[in-house]
From TrEMBL:
Pfam families: Glyco_hyd_65N_2, Glyco_hydro_95_cat. Residues 1-19 form the signal peptide. GO terms for biological process: carbohydrate metabolic process. Keywords: Signal. It comes from Oppiella nova. This is Glycoside hydrolase family 95 protein. One of its GO terms (molecular function) is alpha-L-fucosidase activity. Gene3D superfamilies: putative glycoside hydrolase family protein from bacillus halodurans. Residues 25-77, 78-222 form the Glycosyl hydrolase family 95 N-terminal domain. Residues 250-527 form the Glycosyl hydrolase family 95 catalytic domain. The keyword Signal applies.
Amino acid sequence: MNWILFPVVIQVFVTCVRASDKVFWYESPAADGMNEALPIGNGRIGGLVYGHPEKERINMNDITLWTGDDNPTQDYHGPGFGDYQTLGSLVVDLPDHKVNTQYKRALDIGDAVTTVQYESHGVQYKRDYFVSHVSQVLVGRLTADKGKAYTGRIELQDAHKVAVHAVDNTIAVDGKLVNGLRFAWKVLAQHTGGSLKVNGTVIEFNGCDALTLIVSAGTDYVFDDSKKFKSGEDPAVHVNDWVTKASIKSYESLRTEHLSDFHSLFNRVDVDLGQSSAQQTALSTDKRKVEAVATFDPDFEEMFFQFGRYLMISSSRTSLPANLQGLWNDNNTPAWHSDYHTNINAQMNYWPPETVNLAECHLPLFNMIRSQLNVWRKCTRASKDLLTPLGKHVTKGVAVSSHNIYGGMGGLDGDKTNSAWYAQHFWEHYAFGMDKTYLKDVAYPYLKEVSELWDELLKTVTNGTKQQLGKLVVPHGWSPEHGPHEDGCSYNQEIVWDLYTNYVKAADVLGVDKEFRDRVAGERDRLLWPGI
C-alpha cells in the first residue's frame, strides 16, 4: 500500500470515533519493498508486516538508528550526513503453511493492530501484531483453531552483520554502526503446548498450540550535542528490561494497555462524509481504491483521513519526530537518506497535528530542533552562503537545510528560510494551546533567534522599480525545485513575513524585548510583496 503521513486534512472534532469500518484489508501477502507492507509503530519502534503464511517477515526499525555525524563539511552526499538505517527482519518460518486458502491480511487503524488470517490443511490460523507505547515492545500473537498446529522456527536477520545470540527462548542482537552508535534488539518467544528450543542462532518450535512474540529495540542516542548525541551506555540494558517486563504480563494485558493508550489519542476525532454502499464496503482495499476513482466512496475517504492520524500517532510520540518515511524503512540506503527534508517535507508532516487534535505528537519536532541548535549555530556562523549585505558572516541567528539527527546538514546555498518555516510550527502549537509557559520557554527563544538571523541578512533593494526601491528582500533565495537563485523569491519573502508576524505576536503576548520587537515589525512592513 502507498502511504504518506496525511493524505488529507479536514477539521472535524467530536468526543469519540464512530464504530465504522476502519480496516484496510487485502487478499494476498505484501510484495517486497515498502508500498504494500502494513505499518505499525509506537513512535520509536516500527514494524512493516508482510503477512506471508509460510514465512512471516516483519521489518524492524528504531527511529534513532542513524549513521552520520554533525557533518561539518555540509556535504549532503558524503558519509558525514549518513542514512536512516533498518534493524533487519524478524522472520517466522512456517514451511507447512505454503498451501493455504481464505487468505486475508488487515490493518485496523482504529486499534493499531494488524492481522493475518488463512486456512492451511484444515486449520484456521491467525496472527495479530501491535507495538505498545506503554511497554515499548512489538507484540505478536499466533493462534489456531486446533491444537499442536504450529511447527517452525524464529530468527532475527540483522541488517548490519553483527553477532546474533540465542539463549533459552530469546534471540538477541547488539552492535555498533560505523559512527559508533550502539544498538540492540531482541525477541522473546513464549509458547502454549508443544516444545521450544534454541538451535544455533534460531528458535525452533514444534507442535505448539499458540505463540507470543515480544520484540524490543534501542540505541544509545540522546538529545545532547555535548555527547555527540550518543550516551555511550549499553542499549541492551533497556531492551532486556522492556522485554522482561512485558513477558511477565499476559498477552491480553499487553493488548488492553496498548488499546487504552492508542484510543486516548485516536478516538478524539471523527469525520462523517456520508455512508458508502454495501457493495463498496465489501471490496478489499486495493480493489476499493480503484473503484473510488470513478465513484465517490465516503467511508473510504474517511478512512484515509484517519489513516493520516494513525500514521502520526504511530511515528511521532516521545522520541524523534517522523522523518521523510515516517518511522518505517526497509534498507540502509533509503531515498534522500530518509532525512528531515526541510524545504517542505518535514514541515508538511507536521501541518495537521494541531488541527486533528494530536498536539502531543507535535512535541518531538520541537525537542529535536532544540537539541540540534548548537550544531546549527556553528554551521550558520561559518557558512559562506549566509553573508550579510556587507559581505560579513552572520553573528546571530540560526539556519538549517535538510538534516540528520546529529545536527549535520546539507549546504545552505539552497533554501535559506527553512529554520523560519520550522518557526511557524513553534507558533502554531502556542496558537492552538495558549500555553504561555511553553511560549516563554520553548517557542519564543527560537522565534527570536531565527528573527535575529534575518535582521542581519535582509537586503535593501537599491536597483529596481519605484515600488521596489527601499524594500527588503531575502538575498540569493530559491524556491524549492523551481528555477534559479535570485533576490526576493516570493516563497522566501512570505516565510520571513510569517516569521516576523509570529515573532511580533509572541513578543506582545509576553511583553518582552520591545526594542527588537519594534525593529522586526518595521522590517516586516518593508518586506517586498510578491508580484506577478
